[in-house]
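Tokens for Kinase-like domain-containing protein. Go.
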Amino acid sequence: MADSDDKDKRHIKYLARFGEKKNFNIHGYFKHISRVSITKINITLKKWTILGKGEGKRLLVLKHGYHWLWEWPWGNGGHGEGVGRRRRQSWKNHERCLNSYDIINFYGFTRSPDTLRYMVVMDYANKGNFRGNLTKIIKNDWKQKLHMLHRIISGLNEIHKQKLIHCDFHDGNILNHKDEENGENKENESEENKESEKNEESENYENVKVYISDLGLCQPIKSFLKKYEIYGVIPFMAPEILRGKHFTPASDIYSFSMIMWEFTSGVPPFNDEAHDFQLSLSICRGGRPKIIKNTPQCYVDLMKKCWDEDPLKRPSSKEVLNIIEEWIILPYEKEIEDISKELKRYVMEFINTPIGNNNLVTESHPQACYTSRVLDFTSKKLNKYLESECLDNCRISNDINSLDIETDEN
């Protein structure tokens, strides 16, 4: 909660004891919270504003200053207790990544006096998610775009350094925050200032902080989802994941390539198509978003490597981080004559690339879905269709070869 509200902090369970064995039972871990005065918690929660609900009625998001709460039903026994254990593990995984300034901060837990459900206290990002800012970000120069991209890949690299995979990496899970001038809360701005900001065509994102969030699916590399079940946002899912393979750091890199593309387009990938079985087939066949005109060639080359069909040919997060650091850091640390010809050419590509608008459709297809979900088809069905298609192509190829042989003989 906000630093000025020291009393509020008494109702948060911090992460210092998160790894203790006696905390294995999720309810045992939070048991002491129920002894806190319900009246005091009620007073605390009255200061919070409900931002919205998601996943049916299971998820509640509240705002207070620069922090937010996630409410989740941990359940009592049975399936609910299993959900609790998995959620607890996901928060432990989140804690492992907090050394990075590019991962949203996670403070601890509290409990709702109304629902008696436990809530996670995290930093609040006042600029919303990356997807909601695309139309403004696209109008910034490449220096600003590369700085934002660097923060994103830096956070992803920290996750991979911890031997974890995000597993649900997309533009809705990247948050933006900008500190208010003079420490004033944006809620205290005049109506005139709010209207002026609303009418601005572009906004400087150079000083905007970027955070990776929603590590709810973040899991150890050896973990995997239920057999045949596909969960996620189709445009950001690597073809091997759609086909039922295990998540790997390379599948996160594929998702990152779609975010790279958004920096050039200003719209989410495949926003003009239905996000269904047919799009999944297209991705598995090699379908990718079209390259936007005036994108620096070095950027295109890296993006294509990241979305390569073969996960073994994709660069690691560390390799991508190093490349982007070269583009934005080396030119400032060295004299221009000391930079290699190749790097100099790359830097000049970014400098000379015009900031233009694309002609892509900004209105999404009615069946486009950018919310993570369990898909209405399985990887088994997808593989069966692709294998059948492959057999048909082989038969056609054999028939053509037979015709060629007969023609030669005649």
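The chain has two domains: 6-123, 131-182+202-377.
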